[in-house]
Write a structure and sequence with these properties.
Distance between the termini: 15 Å
Low-confidence stretches: none
Order of helices and strands: EHEHHEEHEHHEHEHHEEEEHEHEEHH
Helix content: 25-40%
Strand order of the largest sheet: 3-2-1-4-5-6
CATH class of the largest domain: Alpha Beta
Shape: globular
Number of strands: 14
CATH architecture of the largest domain: 2-Layer Sandwich
Number of domains: 2
Radius of gyration: 20 Å
CATH topology of the largest domain: Dihydrodipicolinate Reductase, domain 2
Largest sheet: 6 strands, parallel
Mean pLDDT: 96
Strand content: 15-25%
Length: 360
């Protein structure tokens, strides 16, 4: 199968590097264009990027010449790891020009016609692209976003429980320093410390979760009617966001029933067969002191959500902990999974695979 060329915006940053790492040897996509600021433009990627992941940049990408954000791009598929300010305008311009943009940036997530997509949770929201194209006059372009990395384990854990009626959530995060990008939090602020504030994330947890878990009907998303209160903290962990969740359900299932719902959760077709999908979206860990970032963030090649410590809550009814790898499941990995779903659903022109071929 011939691979589809892709461009990566913000390619020299931490999430951009994660895109490059995850796309190396991808069966469907090939990194053909790397894009960064004017400081890096016109230089070989291997020279312009200060590689912060293990190993080195793939040789085929290291030799690519970095393009400027305002250049024209040939790749039909674009992954965006841009800062919010840069993404706000450029992502929409590229979609209007016919590119399919899968964004990790927060700038356009909450626009009414932009799917905030997490395939195992709300794969049907992909059809909002039809409304987007009709409203904006785009023929082949599209803009799809994935959520804030801290929202990810929350909505993954809640999806199988929606049938019980999720009414109220209280969330307290313990977020890894890699969520702040590179170089992230100064060492003198985070070593031997916990910072009880992560700029912007509390609002994102309270709003994005309602959109992702909402109902798609009639060309619009009706947000889930639930009350969410979030507190976000930064902890001295390299990767992995751990969220302590308390929730109020309209029905009162048994603890064993909730665990069975998590362990039996399977995404709708064709998501389980996509190249980046984990073998199971969720795992429940019975050990009393799990999940833990160091031990569990790489489950399912970093794409699985780990849950543990489910117990009764005297205030809201139930409480538990959920963990995801923030730069894989919560960032680049989710964008790639989104693109795979877009491809097999026919939303990317020139994509060589189809949903029927994948199922066969």
């Amino acid at each position: 199968m011939q691979k589809l060329d892709v461009a990566i915006l913000g390619a020299t940053g931490a999430v951009g590097q994660r895109f490059i790492q995850l796309l190396n040897d991808h069966p469907w996509f090939r990194v053909a264009e790397v894009v960064a600021s004017s400081r890096s433009a016109s230089r070989p990627y291997g020279e312009a990027a200060r590689w912060v992941l293990d190993g080195n940049p793939p040789a085929n990408v290291a030799d690519l010449t970095v393009k400027s954000l305002d250049d024209n791009f040939d790749s039909p598929l674009v992954f965006s790891a841009l800062p919010k300010e840069a993404a706000l305008r450029r992502e929409l311009e590229l979609a209007a020009a016919g590119h399919v943009v899968c964004s990790n940036a927060s700038a356009n997530r909450m626009l009414p016609d932009v799917p905030l997509l997490l395939p195992e949770v709300n794969g049907d929201h992909i059809d909002l692209i039809e409304t987007q194209r009709r409203k904006r006059g785009w023929r082949s372009g599209a803009l799809v976003a994935n959520s804030n990395c801290t929202v990810m384990p929350v909505v993954m854990a809640l999806k199988p429980l929606l049938k019980y009626g999720v009414r109220r959530l209280h969330l307290v995060s313990e977020q890894a320093v890699s969520g702040a990008g590179y170089p992230g939090v100064p060492s003198l602020d985070i070593i031997d410390n916990i910072v009880p504030f992560v700029p912007g994330d509390e609002g994102k947890m309270e709003t994005e979760s309602r959109k992702i878990l909402g109902n798609y009907a009639g060309g619009v998303i009706e947000e889930l009617d639930m009350v969410v209160s979030a507190t976000c903290t930064r902890v001295p962990v390299l990767d992995g966001h751990l969220i302590n969740i308390s929730l109020d359900l309209a029905e009162k299932p048994r603890i064993a029933d909730i665990i069975a719902d998590w362990e039996g959760f399977v995404a709708d077709e064709p998501v389980p067969n996509l190249p980046s999908a984990p073998s199971a979206p969720l795992q429940y860990l019975n050990q009393i002191d799990r999940p833990q970032p160091r031990r569990d963030r790489d489950a399912g090649a970093g794409m699985m959500t780990s849950i543990g410590r489910l117990r009764e809550c005297p205030v809201l009814g139930y409480k538990f902990a959920a963990l995801s790898h923030n730069t894989i499941r919560g960032a680049a990995g989710c964008s790639i999974l989104n693109a795979e779903l877009l491809g097999v659903k026919g939303y990317i022109e020139g994509f060589p695979a189809s949903e029927a071929a994948l199922a066969g």
